[in-house]
């Protein structure tokens, strides 16, 4: 029986969470240096849960919130970082507990396939993080839109909305922020399959039907058109000057052409890194409506 459907498994999780006495006994038997090493090991494990999303979600979302909010103090900026990372961690621990099989092929360094943590321990961690997130949301600090039928849009706009609300001095979304979140959601919806090219082998084995699998040639033409088209559209919408607009279109064209021409796994991984650089640039553009620094 799948342990995720076994009621006794949930009982084991709860019991493990309550085993404070056993944890205390283990800590008492460790030296300060050993405790430090254990702490570093587990912090690194937590980092690995979110490693692949630093360039895809963490940096774009925190940058988006910083320039769209806009940020009003260092304390606000620190809160943005903590908010985005902790929510990203909670989502990733839960997701990766169900995708350990395909991660052996696509991302073997993740905590579960790397055997840094067991599925049972990941389930316990996911439950604990969910409880923390519930308390956080119950206090009213996490008002955000959730679009269940389009998970990628919901995920990105959730992180960006939360980061923007925290960064804003008024804890509210103004017209610029709303426009930015809407455009970001549309951008993600039309280009996020850029992440699927490098994962075709693992996705095919797991039975997924991603765009690069269903339409190998058409998906590459499509991503090229979308990156160039969005670069032009965003340049006009955010009123970029000729130099900045040209630079954005050139970056989008470079990434799109790279996806179209370079088709091996290593090249697709590199193209995805460049895509995230382009996405990061796109997320800074709303700041031009506030500061006008890109209109020259």
From TrEMBL:
Keyword field contains Coiled coil: no
Record membrane topology: Multi-pass membrane protein
Keyword Thylakoid: no
GO cellular component: membrane
Compartments where found: Membrane
Family matches, as Gene3D superfamilies: UbiA prenyltransferase
An example molecular function term from Gene Ontology annotations: transferase activity, transferring alkyl or aryl (other than methyl) groups
Main location: membrane
Record key words, sorted: Membrane, Transmembrane, Transmembrane helix
Alphabetized PANTHER family for the sequence: CHLOROPHYLL SYNTHASE, CHLOROPHYLL SYNTHASE, CHLOROPLASTIC
Top-level taxon in the UniProt lineage: Eukaryota
Pfam families documented for this protein: UbiA
Protein name as it appears in the record: Uncharacterized protein
Membrane-spanning intervals of the chain: 243-260
Coiled-coil positions: none
